[in-house]
Amino acid sequence: MAIARHSVLVRVTHWLTVISFVALLVTGLEIVISHPRFYWGETGNVNMKPLFTIPIPSSRDTVPTGYGYVMPDQNGWSRYLHFESAWVLVLTGLVYGIASLLNGHFRRNLVPEPGERSLGAHWERMSQYLRRKPPGKDETHSYNVLQRTTYLIVIFVLFPLVIWTGLALSPSFNAAFPWGVNLLGGRQSARTLHFFVTWALVLFLLVHVAMLAVSGFWSRMQGMITGRTSSMGESVATKELV
Amino acid sequence: MKPMSRRALITSGLAAAGVAGLAAANRLAGRHGLIPPDCRGIYGPGETLTYATQRILTRHAMAREFPRNMISKNPFMNEVAPPSDQFKKLQAGGFGDWRLTVDGLVAHPMSLSLADLRSLPTHSQITEVVCEEGWSYVAEWIGTPLSGVLREAGILPQARYLKYFSIQPEWSDSIDMADAHHPQTFLTLGMNDGELPVGFGGPLRLRVPRQLGYKSVKYITRITATDSMKFQGDYAWFAGI
Prior knowledge:
The complex is a heterodimer.
Chain A: E1 2-4, H1 8-33, E2 37-38, E3 52-53, H2 75-103, H3 105-110, H4 119-130, H5 145-167, H6 171-176, H7 178-182, H8 187-215, H9 217-226, E4 228-230
Antiparallel strand pairs in A: 1-4, 2-3
Chain B: H1 6-31, H2 44-57, H3 85-92, E1 99-104, E2 110-113, H4 114-118, E3 123-130, E4 136-145, H5 146-153, E5 161-166, E6 172-176, H6 177-180, E7 186-191, E8 194-195, E9 205-207, E10 220-226
Parallel strand pairs in B: 1-10
Antiparallel strand pairs in B: 1-2, 3-4, 4-7, 5-6, 5-10, 7-8, 7-9
């Protein structure tokens, strides 16, 4: 018997997010190569002291990196694809967010259940993971409290932050909404924060995929692609994660 | 013929409405100047969304201006190609023979010397130069708003874009009329209380402070107004992001 896991909306928006995030990550790193130095405050350039430097060659010979090698410039298509993918991400996020508010997905599946809204409940689940205890039967049809809190942070903190810090790098947007960049401490601070939030999202991605491996990669993959998981080795449940 | 199921009816109805809606949006966007020249190709949809959104939300917005104490002590001038022979000859003459030609869709084509430009109303702005690579600096830019020159030249209502050319071969760019008439778009002659140094684009640079640095082309000799544009280039045409 097949178990219903994810609604069409969750599956489609999940994979659109995956595609756009990977495109944003690759093109973002490509853009960073043209100036692998980070600053704090409003301004920053090679005549100023950086906050930190990534020890890689640059795609510009004006950046002193210590390497006698200049990487090829890929910024043209990288920038085009970065912003197009950002649109896919933002529009996907809007559809997912609005629909999930309306159909109760957030309330039902992501907000921790009343008895579990404590640090203790999170720690208990964490210690189960650390002891490598296999997932319980309840986890086939429902997210556990650690998953819920993590997903809520990713959806309501990290993605909004990465979009905000990205928008704060747009000179025209900053003209219309100067507080967007000023609140972050200036343009270079926004760029540095954009970089850090990206790594927080990458960290989430790595843990997310590692957890799939722990709990059955193909079964979870099947769930997110077809919406169903075969009942082999899973508890029988009919509650759908819509 | 088999009767259509309710689901198929709703789906095809929605699809038809979607297609009609897109066509209408496209016509409206074209009429209101929301379609950028690089609207085609795989990156066209993203660029069009960006440009249309910016023109709806930020058409009249003013770039952030900074207090004098935020002017960068060590601005970065970026590298340029070695100066052409033509540039070196003009430089040897103290740029006395530098001319800016204004032509195309204007009632009175003009050729202006730097002295002519200096006799026009002079303004200054302390704005940030933002390079697409990631670096930036703040400087005071002194010059005359491009809009005044366009008014003198009698720019025609059918003009939609302004192309501008550097004296350096194969260096040019273009902006739409929203940026051309914007009060902070300057024909820049000075920087930080002095003449505009050659490294920063002297004797004449077009500053477009609401867009990335690559739109602020150095060593301007010609501006031409046009009603159509074929886009060629590796970088996005609209650089306000």
